[in-house]
Amino acid sequence: RMQITGQTLTRADVEAALPHAPLVFQDCNLDGADLSRLDLRNCTFTSCSIAETSFYAAKLGQTTWQRCRGRQADFEAADLTDARFQGCDLNNSSWRRAHLASLTFKSCKLTGASFEEAAHLGLHFEECLLIGADLRRLSFRKAKLIGLDFGDADLAACDFRDAVFEGGSLRNASLKQARFDNADLREADLSGLTLADVKLFQGAWITPRQAAELISELGLRVA
């Protein structure tokens, strides 16, 4: 594996190194680079800066990303099958129409990220900030959701049937047409829900304390 350390790289630089792939990028600056459609499968990115970098339609299968900073990074239509992101800051990144099969995000900041129309079979989030993210129509069915903050996220038509929330938050999330049949919400923060939202939780499990909080949010008094 060829390692590239501490360099500021353009598309031309990356293309020149590709014959030596898989590559290891360490402490590199790729900010704003156009890396669209490149074949970067099996490459590793550690402590790199990828702010506003374009990976449009790139081949990123089995890549590993650790402690990278990627504000507004663009992964639209990229293939990220079996990729892994750990400890990365990817605020306002785009994953629109990307292939995210068996992709893992662990301890990542994905505030404001867009997952519109992403192919996501086996997509796994753990201990992630998804505040204000666009996650419409994603399926979390039967998933164990560990420490996920969905505050203010767009979860319209998401499938949470049989999911188990271990901590995390649905505070002020948009839940239009989401499904929660048999979901275990006993450890989740459910504050900010509306009467319309409560109907979506038919068949879900909550604690008596959560039930009391929901009732008070709706302006009712329990004597």
Give structural attributes.
single chain, 223 residues, alpha/beta, seven-stranded parallel sheet, two-stranded parallel ribbon, 9 strands, elongated
Explain what this protein looks like in three dimensions.
The chain is an alpha/beta fold. It has 3 helices and 9 strands. The strands form 2 sheets. The chain has a 7-stranded parallel sheet, with no helix packed on it.
Question: Topology as H/E string?
Answer: EHEEEEEEEEHH
Which radius of gyration do the C-alpha atoms yield?
19 Å
The strands making up the biggest β-sheet line up spatially as 1-2-3-4-5-6-7
Strand-pairing-aware structural class: alpha/beta
Strand content: 5-15%
Low-confidence stretches: none
Oligomer: single chain
Distance between the amino and carboxyl termini: 68 Å
The whole-number mean of residue pLDDT values reads 95
Helix content: 10-25%
Main β-sheet, in a few words? 7 strands, parallel
How would the global form be characterised?
A: elongated
Number of strands: 9
**Tally of individual helices:** 3
Q: What's a concise summary of this model?
A:
The chain has three helices and nine strands. It has helices at residues 11-17, 195-200, 208-217, and strands at 2-5, 23-26, 44-46, 64-66, 84-86, 104-106, 124-126, 144-146, 164-166.
